[in-house]
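Hi D.,

Good news: the full-assembly prediction came through. Inputs first.
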Amino acid sequence: MLFAGSSPVISTTSVFDPAGGPAKAGAGLFTLIMVLMVVVVLMISFLVSWAGFKFRDHAGRENFEPRQSSGNFKLEIAWTVGPALLLVFLFIPTVIVMDQADPPVPANAQANVDVEIIGHQWWWEYRYPKYGFTTANEMYMPAGTNFLAKLESADVIHEFWVPQLGPEFQNIPGSPVYQYLEADKPDQVLHGACSQYCGTQHAWMLISVHVVTPDAFKAWAASQQKASTPPASVAAAATTTPSTGAATSSNSGCSATNLNDAVSNPACVAAGYQVYLNNTCVNCHAIAGTTSNAIVGPNLTHLASRQIIGSGIRANTAQNLAAWVRNANDIKPGVHMPSYSQLSDTDINNLVAYLESLK
Amino acid sequence: MSEINIPLVPEKTKALPRLGESEGLLSWVASVDHKQIGIMYILSAVVFFIIGGLEAGLMRLQLGSPENTLLSPDLYNEIFTMHGTTMIFLVVVPLLLGFGVYFVPLMIGARDLAFPRLNLLGFWVLVFGGIMLYFSFIAGGAPNAGWFSYAPLSEKGYSTTVGLDYWALGLLAIGIGTVIGGINFIVTTLTMRAPGMKMSQVPMFVWTSFINSFIIIFALPPFNAALVMLEFDRLLHGHFFTPETGGSAVLWQQYFWTFGHPEVYIMILPAWGMAAEIIPVFSRKPLFGYKFFAGSSIAIAVLSFAVFAHHMFAVGLGHAFDVFFGAATELIAIPTGVKIFNWIGTMWGGKIRYTVAMQFAVAFIVLFVMGGVTGVSFAIFPVDWDITASYYVVAHMHYVLFGGTLFLILAATYYWFPKMTGRMLSEKIGVWHFWLTVVGFNMTFLVQHILGLVGMPRRVYTYPDNPGWGFMNQISTVGYFIIAISVLVFLYNFFYSLKKGEKAPDNPWDAWTLEWATSSPPPTENFYQLPPIRSRRPLWDYAHPENPDWKPRDAEHAGPKKKQSKQEGRTAGD
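Then the structure:
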């Protein structure tokens, strides 16, 4: 079923709803500029309307010959110098806000990075070097701190745009950009999107930044650092060799006939783990604690802790995940993940049960 | 005072040849007459405008509701790429070149351009490039990396179809055609002015086309070079722009915008010259501040090469870099502002006739200022950092290119159609055309400023159902259909008037530049005879021997005025 379900609705993400210092500085300057812009447009509109009305040709003016004036030197100077002064004046807040909106990073920025934001076609990878783990599509940051981000790309140019965090910079392969991210209030999710056209699914590289208290952040990081524990009953050997790519689960003890039953059944979760290991999932994905450590696709170690899948195209529910696994291209055409419709419904249910256990 | 009736053109003993008469279509294909080539430029641009407009329609239909499934992402991406590429390279620039090719020789009293055969070559190379670009649709896929094709997305690894090769090669051809036009205008303006016409006396449209040509010959070559480098990468395993093999993605942006920014001035400078012809004629006064206007055009041409990296504020090249380009971008706003004041100063104290041409020109002033102020907001680069790749930019560019250039091209069409075809466009239908365009245009693009401010990125084939986004996009889509109707109304006016329009005299608007000193349409050799040229308005001088422009104006002949001004001692030739 094409496009079954829909993406989660998020709240408005306005440039004028800044979440922290840098964004506030930019929004303040933007407000000033907007006011000036409106004043200029109104002024010109007024002048044009006034001149256009007052000096229009109408009955009674047939014999009027306008004065063939060719210019007025003083006026020309005035309206050249006047705007020039205004623009020079505007340059002062520009330079001041420049350092507030984009605080300079130290020379040893590389060693102090809090989060590496790596753009991929068409998802976001988040690496936390100070904690040594990688996650995808949902970023966490502590409120009230200068969080140093390093923007990079694994393929083409992307752009990390979260309007409430202020400036957006490009993620350019080979040319990292450092940026301080700051949000004052905890317990909010800031939303954004990739804003530099990056190919087929540029539209669905949504960004969600969870701003939490510093303590909550530490707790989250600690939980992300933990590798997963492979499910208990892995003893039974797979019934077919992995190379056929159609290995089924050993089914020992898993009698669920539908997805919901499978999800809560530990035997099905174990069976699903086998499906994961014995198919090509491991060619692209990594789950810490298993033998899979590929970095082509999103890291799945704590997939079940995320609210969205497909970089924001669907909510993270078992149904949506099953549809995604069955054929990601039905939901997000062009995505690099292949279809797994050759797997039986049971295998997919069990696989999803395993994935939804990865909290 | 209505039309001047001066026998500049001797009594006709035989009917003047109509364009295209008796020699058929082939005579057009190989004609080196600048008037025919000018018309061909304009007609080909109209065809591409319709195609580009249909592409826009598909885009707006797809974006009319959230998560719409009308177009697949791949098809949408091809269409938005082709929409931008078409409108810029195959519509706006050819329209400005076409009017220039037609009118620059006439306005300087010349027989043709300096290089008539080169002129024809330029036109056909442009058409060839356009056909090659569109051929891509059936040759494996249209280009789909956006009209500025950033690397490495444009490289073979990520854009696997031949679309981008057609893009690069098609644009190379079109770029060559454009440079040809530029060379022709420069040489013509410098060497073929009628005797007595000084450079400070050429009509402003000629000045702006002339200065524009310098921008063209300096801006297109870097682009052509970059296209060749891209093809080296794509077809010959080069590494200019591939970071993973030692190249630089940023380098593509540098090359592209070195061309891309001057290109936007190429797309408006001659149009400003058109406004400088139309507004004076319908205000019944000379252009206010000719010298400042010309000087500001030169300043813009020079500065346009110094501001290009304002398209790269989000690349993180360092605050020093941003400060330089931000300051330069603010600077370039000043000569542009001077022009706005000059147009208003022209209207001031005049006797304004609201022909459809004048309606479009006056509306242009307001719409262009709206586009201009959002442009200045980008110069304040911390603001740029907030919204640089959002729908706010899409709104800005359409206000300056559509509300700006296209409105003036429409004004010029109503102004010069009589001269080119010998018939008047219907003013009645024109008023409908005007209002539909104003309403449709603003409805489509005003709301896009807000969409950008609330977080909608550009170049997306769809968007999530965020509060208000669907509604605003719907408004924009409805606006598109109003524009579409306005285009149909215009086309009706165009074809109806060609057949049945009121016959046009030599000088239906009582204008003053040399193109009006000959028949409508002009004979093949343009002029049988020229009036004496001692100022910027030869026909005014001819009709007002008691108050010509080249004589210092004093209180007696200056027309009703309350008090003497210091202008008295200066001639109007300044």
